[in-house]
Amino acid sequence: MTGGNLTRDEAAERARLLTARHYAVELDLTRGDTTFGSRSTISFACAEPGAASFVDLLAPNVRGVTLNGRALDPAEVFDGARVHLAGLAADNVVVIDADAAYSRTGEGLHRFVDPVDGEVYLYTQFEPADSRRLFANFEQPDLKAAFQFTVTAPPNWRVWSNESLEELTQDADGANVWRFNATEPISTYITAIVAGDYHVVEDSHTVRLPDGSDLLIPVSAMVRKSLAPYFDADAVLEVTKAGLDFYHRIFDYPYPFGKYDSAFVPEYNLGAMENPGLVTFNEKLVFRSKTTDASYQGRANTIMHEMAHMWFGDLVTMKWWDDLWLKESFADFMGAYALVHATRWTDAWVSFANGRKAWAYRQDQLPTTHPIVADIRDLEDARLNFDGITYAKGASVLKQLAAYVGEDAFLEGARRYFKRHAFGNTTLDDLLEVLAQTSGRDLKTWSRAWLETAGVNTLIAEADTDANGVVTAARIRQSAVPEHPTLRPHRIAVGGYSPNPATGAVELVERFELDVEGELTELPQLVGKPRPALVLLNDQDLTYAKIRFTDEEFDAFERGGIAALPDSMARALAWSGVWHMTRDAVVSGRRFLDVVLNNIEAETDISVVQNLLRQVGLVHEQYLDPANRPAAAAKLSARLWELLDGAAPGSDHQVAFVYGAVRGASQDADFERLRALLAGELAYQGLSVDQDLRWAIIEALAAAGRDDDAALSEREAAADDTADGRRHRA
Q1: Distance between alpha carbon 406 and the CA centroid of its chain, in Å?
Q2: Neighbouring residues of 149: CB distance < 8 A, sequence distance ≥ 6
Q3: CA–CA separation, 691 vs 724, rounded Å?
Q4: At 3, is the pLDDT very low, low, confident or very high (cuts 50, 70, 90)?
């Protein structure tokens, strides 16, 4: 296939034929606001002298092409996406000089002008195949090479790339010329450039290596200047340093990319990108207004996710996009794992269960679901595969794999994998091979069941009891939908919860682990004992499966039984099960709302609270009988204002409940309170009606047709003439 696409077969043939060695990339960012100069000098070998191949490039104009000193006619060799090269030698140097285009859509080199002060900010985003918009290259992950960037930029700018600065000079026109050191061998899609007059905070961190030596890692965090007053760089760098310590400790492989810069950039299409030495983040992770701790935890998780990629994805990279899931799943898993073991967010798996994993369950039950290991035929397939299956289901399944083989065996397998394949490319089989060695488990069957099939299983606990409530037989029943009938092996924990007879407080009365196989798995551990009030399958959330409760258990939840559970993970799993039962129409939307409104006030995990508030809105809008929605809306909005009134001043719950009340407003009295909040006529101790909250109120009034003053949003936008303000006004 020709044009902008690239097939797996074409990439495999090019990788067989060519070996990329070194890129010298020269960029001139002083030529105006639409295009920039790009010269790429590529050194590479060819296994079959005389053969033909091609270089990838997406640029509006090619000025010149030379191959081994011989000039080629750009009109003859460039077709708009490829530079075709014939008559290759054993060793080759190709030089391609082009005019490349700035992007306004987030691919390639994105250019942003800050409406606050007119400053220009540039950054790159390439995955899966947009580095060819910056410079000519072999755009596939398994043709790794060393990259050396030289960037000419305006004198008031700073420039960053993957490696540290080698030399800074000036050209004859007074522009600065930034020459960076060459990288280790990396893939094209993780090369990076950031440029502009960014506000930057610089520091360094020393990591003690196993041999007793010290590794000094320069670290920094940057943001555009107009966001500097809101930028808590110290908090960002604190998590960064904690992550560097932690990953060195568990991976036993020195950080391979010299420095660690974190750039928070505007108009970003993604959450973040793992460019080695220069990680880019969405600047939405810089909070202009008061937010909850869940937001800070989410940012820390993103930092840890991207840092895990330095080893799994950057040091060792997939051969082709079939195994995109592997690096993303590993990083998603490690993001939560690192928070638990290296930061104050020791309940990060609770947030994962109610956030990322909920995303996976949702996407896995859509008609568009697919196996974790997808068939990626070409780059267009790859672009479609950045979804909840690739990221969150994959991470959930890796958590199950760690439980299945044992956590120690899982981490030892990762360590061997990094050492064996450093700066190389791998497939899934390479990882399964080392994990089989460290665990002694046969993972081929496991892989077929978990990675090569789609869909999610449902687990139900069944217990027979005698007249005294003593269990006489118990089992787990596993099921699957007809479209995806695979019954998988599960390593799970089972928790039994009952009220203490003396105090009435609900307690964990027993917990045990077992392997679930096939349709029925016996539970002899429960036999001969009183049946617990709640038998919680998948306690500790080790596997990826929906759980379902008995009628008696659900009735108890409606009476406040979830709030009574002593453990945040147990509550998260109860909430997850209740949600699945609602979504699957096992129980009504009305009952779901009752469970939430009767339990949410006592829920301590703020990420769970915020997720429940989102689900409440979805149930009200989509799951209720339309005839019942007005009454439910009135009940819901009244309860949300009650929760706000009762929230501790300045607490995360106060913030969550005020946004819940704004989104849930439906009655005349609700909108009057919103107007009063906006005007400063209604105040809550500890609550600031800051810019984000003001916009939320204005948008709620407008959405309900209650904005009596048509100029309200225009006046607010005039007061908030920032990129965010313009986005809200639009």
Answers
A1: 25
A2: 25, 26, 27, 161, 162, 163, 178, 179, 180, 191, 193
A3: 10
A4: low
For 89-105, the DSSP string reads: -SEEEEEEEEEEE-BSS
Beta strand extents in 250-311 (DSSP E only) = 260-265, 272-273, 278-282
Indicate the pairing of strand 61-67 with strand 91-101. antiparallel
Structure tokens at 461: 């606990």
pLDDT at 552 over 90: yes
Gap between the Cα atoms of 716 and 145, Å rounded: 50
Q: Where in the chain is the domain with CATH 2.60.40.1730?
A: 1-197
Contact, 615 vs 658, CB < 8 A? no
CATH of domain 317-451: 1.10.390.10
Helices (H), 368-440: 379-383, 394-405, 407-421, 428-439
Domain 1-197 has CATH 2.60.40.1730: yes
Both tokens assigned to 294: 């869940």
Interatomic CA distance for residues 467 and 471, integer angstroms = 10
Q: Which residues contact 324 (CB under 8 A, 6 or more apart)?
A: 128, 318, 374, 376, 382, 385, 386, 390
- Residue (of 568, 577, 499) closest to 536 by Cα position: 577
Give me the active site residues, please.
306
With 0.85 as the threshold, say if the pTM is over it.
yes
> Closest Cα to residue 139, out of 321, 265, 394?
321
pLDDT mean across residues, the chain: 96
Structure tokens at 433: 């091979």
Instruction: Give the distance from CA 410 to its chain's centroid.
Output: 22
Q: What is residue 508's three-state secondary structure?
A: strand
CA distances in angstroms from 275 to 127, 194, 226, 259, listed in the order given: 10, 11, 24, 11
Dist. CA 207–CA 714, nearest whole Å: 51
Q: DSSP code of 627?
A: G
Owner of token pair 């679930």: 516
Query: Is the Cβ–Cβ distance between 217 and 206 less than 8 Å?
Result: yes
Radius of gyration of the chain (CA): 28
Distance from C-alpha of 387 to C-alpha of 402, rounded to nearest angstrom: 22
* Strand pairing report for 120-125 and 193-196: antiparallel
Q: How far apart are CA 111 and CA 267, in angstroms?
A: 9
**pLDDT tens-digit map of 436-474:** 999 999 899 999 999 999 999 999 999 999 999 999 999
User: CB of 201 within 8 A of CB of 237?
Assistant: yes
d(CA 554, CA 204): 53
The letter for the amino acid at 533 is A
- Residue ranges of E strands in 565-610: none
Q: What mean pLDDT comes out for the span 344-369?
A: 96
Q: Taking the chain, what is the end-to-end CA distance rounded to the nearest angstrom? A: 40
The CA–CA distances, whole Å, from 78 to 73, 75, 128, 139, 143 equal 8, 6, 22, 16, 21
| Comma-separated ranges of CATH 1.10.390.10 domains in the chain | 317-451
Closest by CA to 31, choosing from 92, 91, 88, 97, is 97
Closest CA relative to residue 531, chosen from 467, 463, 577, 477: 463
